[in-house]
């Protein structure tokens, strides 16, 4: 019998390789797209590469760091103090079983990159996350600094309890004034609903324990030369590893290893049905090339959106379960790639991300792909930008044709002053449905009912971001997949261990001393 994995993203491919390492020889991965990597894929457009959403390769998990570096070793000569990693040219005997034969291709490496993310507000740049250093305070001005300071103190002395919404969560950590200045508009642009309607769970998973106090302590350590670059908070890590040709390169190598080890990877295979009978998943049916093909399954690992999973197995569920799944919210995502000559930028942009807080524009964030890796760009004389728009599949923005979206993106870049010309050298539009599971709405409030029903199927394991309807980062998704693979390999079933990953703030955000 076959272990069927739905989805060839980070979670699916991690599970596939871990199952092989544990001795499982009959594993098949079904991927609906033509590229592996899911939202972590890299899209090549005329030699210029796009990282969908931006993916730093940094984790508090040593296991994840070692796993990555075993597939794509760190470039020779790179100094990574404090990181216990495999380096290019290291003895192959030390590598994990599933990566015994790493390529000698010098292109299959990870680079050490500097991180810079900033907020763009009122045509000025502020550090992101907010470091509240002297430069930031100068730009805010004396009056706002005092007002924001009193607002923060008030929030710390009298926090909102209990924290029911993301608004409560952010006010408690930053104060009401700072929240409204730097968080409210951008967050609502991302999610499309007011912050007071979003679950505080999103803040607990995405922002964790980052606060003004910790940001100030981090800035103080930097100024005093006390190792500010070894920040405790994941959000403050100022350098990271990155595959030479983007995040998809990691998952392309993982997929190749899986196939070389005897696994079956079926691309452009859209899962349409999962047969569930007597509390067990029996088979998975997919469509490829117009043909329906069924695979008998001993176990199923699902990374597909929970809504789609329930629809594919709807006959197995009572109406209230189907109803919850049907009403789950998702946020969709559009990237518009714009290529400019370097002379078109009024000032250099050294950022990985720029969070756009300027009023009157739809763009939420801008990536500068040159700064992720210089090999993401075909010509060093050009700057390759990715403008990110957040919407729903039902929104007018989603249904605009590519020419209209490109014109909108060009116009907004010029309007906010990040470029000095409207015309670009090249452009492309990429739509990503269900990029973010929604943490709001009546259905989300009842998600535990849905989770309980799905977890009752003994041989069905949910992993990854969409698979669990949870804002997992890439490394968290991998850890959920590792645990699912371990349980399958050892004949165990304890799904609470999978759901416990990315819950404990201290464990996942602060590295033990």
Automatic annotation (TrEMBL):
Signal peptide: none
A family per Pfam: Amino_oxidase
Domain Amine oxidase: 11-488
Protein name in the entry: Amine oxidase domain-containing protein
Organism, scientific name: Cognatilysobacter xinjiangensis
Lineage, highest ranks first: Bacteria, Pseudomonadati, Pseudomonadota, Gammaproteobacteria, Lysobacterales
């Amino acid at each position: 019998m076959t272990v069927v994995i739905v989805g060839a993203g980070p979670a699916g491919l991690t599970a596939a390789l871990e199952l092989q390492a544990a001795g499982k020889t009959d594993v098949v991965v079904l991927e609906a797209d033509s590229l592996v990597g899911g939202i972590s894929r890299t899209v090549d457009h005329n030699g210029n590469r796009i990282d969908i959403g931006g993916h730093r390769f940094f984790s508090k998990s040593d296991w994840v760091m070692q796993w990555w570096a075993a597939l794509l070793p760190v470039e020779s000569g790179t100094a990574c103090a404090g990181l216990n990693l495999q380096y290019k040219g290291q003895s192959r005997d030390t590598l994990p079983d599933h990566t015994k034969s790493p390529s000698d291709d010098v292109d299959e490496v990870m680079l050490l990159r500097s991180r810079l993310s900033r907020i763009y507000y009122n045509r000025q740049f502020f550090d992101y996350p907010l470091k509240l250093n002297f430069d930031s305070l100068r730009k805010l001005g004396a009056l706002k600094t005092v007002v924001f300071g009193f607002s923060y103190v008030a929030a710390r002395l009298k926090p909102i309890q209990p924290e029911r919404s993301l608004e409560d969560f952010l006010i408690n950590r930053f104060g009401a004034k700072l929240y409204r200045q730097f968080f409210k508009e951008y967050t609502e642009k991302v999610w499309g609903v007011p912050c007071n309607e979003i679950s505080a769970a999103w803040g607990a998973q995405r922002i964790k324990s980052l606060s003004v106090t910790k940001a100030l302590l981090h800035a103080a350590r930097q100024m005093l030369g006390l190792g500010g670059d070894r920040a405790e908070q994941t959000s403050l890590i100022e350098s990271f590893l990155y595959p030479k040709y983007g995040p998809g390169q990691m998952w392309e190598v993982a997929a190749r290893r899986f196939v070389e080890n005897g696994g079956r990877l079926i691309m452009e295979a859209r899962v349409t049905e999962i047969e569930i009978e007597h509390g067990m998943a029996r088979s998975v049916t997919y469509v490829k090339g117009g043909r329906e093909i069924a695979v008998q399954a001993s176990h199923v690992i699902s990374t597909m959106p929970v809504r789609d999973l329930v629809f594919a197995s709807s006959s197995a569920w009572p109406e209230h379960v189907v109803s919850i799944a049907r009403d789950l919210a998702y946020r969709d995502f559009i990237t518009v790639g714009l290529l400019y000559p370097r002379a078109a930028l009024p000032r250099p942009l050294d950022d990985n991300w720029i969070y756009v807080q300027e009023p009157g524009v739809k763009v939420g964030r801008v990536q500068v792909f040159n700064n992720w890796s210089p090999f993401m760009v075909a010509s060093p004389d050009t700057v390759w930008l990715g403008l990110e728009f957040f919407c729903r599949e039902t929104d007018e923005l989603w249904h605009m044709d590519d020419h209209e979206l490109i014109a909108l993106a060009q116009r907004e870049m010029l309007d906010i002053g990040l470029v000095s010309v409207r015309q670009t050298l090249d452009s492309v539009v990429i739509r990503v449905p269900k990029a973010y599971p929604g943490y709001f709405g009546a259905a989300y409030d009842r998600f535990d009912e849905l989770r309980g029903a799905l977890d009752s199927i003994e041989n069905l394991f949910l992993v990854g971001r969409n698979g669990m309807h949870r804002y997992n980062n890439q490394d968290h998704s991998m850890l959920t997949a590792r645990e699912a693979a371990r349980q399958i390999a050892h004949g165990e079933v304890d799904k609470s261990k999978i759901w416990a990953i990315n819950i404990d703030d201290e464990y996942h955000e602060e590295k033990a001393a």
